[in-house]
C-alpha cells in the first residue's frame, strides 16, 4: 500500500465518520417531533385508567431555600429534561389493611418486647389504640392496631439530673468512693 492509496482510504474513513456523526445528530433532532406526530396520528389502543384524576393530588410543603443560588443536576443520559414520557401511566388503588384478630396479641407482644407488660396496661382490649403507662419512668407506650403505629413517650432524664453543677468535685468523688468501699 502506497501513500496515495492510504490517503484515499483515510479520506473515505473521515468522510464516513463525519456522515455517521451528522446522521446521528440529525436523528437526535428529528426523533422527538416525529414520535409526537406518530402518536397523534396513531394513538395507543389502551383505554385511559378510570381512577386517574380521582386520586388526591400530592401536597408539597413549602421549604425556604437556605442557599439562593442552588444548582440542580439532571441525572439523565444527555443532561436535559426527559421527553419520552408515556402517554398512559398505571394507577393502582391503595389496599386498605385487613382487620386482624391477632392485632391485639401482636400489640401486647410488641409491648412486652419494649418492656411494657400486663401490669402497666391501661386501655381496653377492644380499643384500636393499646396504651401502657409506666409510673416509675413516667413513660407511655401507644400501639395503634389498625395503622401499626408505635408511639413511645419517654422523658429523657438520668442520674445526671440529680447532681447540680459544681456539686461533684474530684475530692468529693474520691471521698464518696472511699466511704463506699470501706462500708462493705
Sum this structure up briefly:
The protein has 184 residues and is α+β, with helices and mostly antiparallel strands. It contains three helices and three strands.
Q: Strand order, biggest sheet?
A: 1-2-3
Radius of gyration: 36 Å
| Tally of DSSP helical segments | 3
| Percent helix range | 25-40%
Instruction: List SSEs in N-to-C order.
Output: HHEEEH
Strand coverage percent: 5-15%
Q: What features would you describe in this structure?
A:
With 184 residues, this protein is an alpha+beta fold. Among the domains are: 1-56; 103-158, no CATH class. Helix content is 35%, strand content 9%. The chain has 3 helices and 3 strands, in the order ααβββα. The protein has helices at 3-41, 103-113, 170-183; strands spanning 129-134, 139-144, 149-153. The longest helix is centred in the N-terminal third of the chain and has 39 residues, at 3-41.
Amino acid at each position: 500500500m502506497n501513500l496515495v492509496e492510504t490517503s484515499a482510504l483515510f479520506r473515505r474513513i473521515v468522510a464516513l465518520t463525519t456522515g455517521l456523526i451528522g446522521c446521528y445528530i440529525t436523528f437526535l433532532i428529528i426523533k422527538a417531533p416525529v414520535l409526537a406526530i406518530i402518536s397523534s396520528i396513531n394513538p395507543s389502543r389502551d383505554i385511559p385508567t378510570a381512577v386517574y384524576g380521582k386520586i388526591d393530588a400530592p401536597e408539597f410543603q413549602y421549604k425556604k431555600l437556605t442557599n439562593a443560588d442552588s444548582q440542580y443536576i439532571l441525572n439523565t443520559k444527555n443532561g436535559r429534561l426527559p421527553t419520552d414520557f408515556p402517554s398512559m401511566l398505571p394507577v393502582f388503588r391503595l389496599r386498605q389493611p385487613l382487620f386482624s384478630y391477632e392485632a391485639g396479641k401482636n400489640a401486647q407482644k410488641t409491648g412486652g418486647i419494649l418492656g411494657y407488660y400486663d401490669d402497666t396496661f391501661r386501655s381496653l382490649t377492644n380499643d384500636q389504640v393499646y396504651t401502657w403507662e409506666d409510673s416509675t419512668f413516667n413513660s407511655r407506650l401507644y400501639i395503634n392496631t389498625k395503622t401499626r403505629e408505635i408511639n413511645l413517650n419517654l422523658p429523657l432524664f438520668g442520674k445526671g439530673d440529680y447532681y447540680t453543677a459544681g456539686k461533684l468535685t474530684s475530692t468529693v468523688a474520691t471521698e464518696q468512693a472511699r466511704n463506699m468501699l470501706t462500708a462493705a
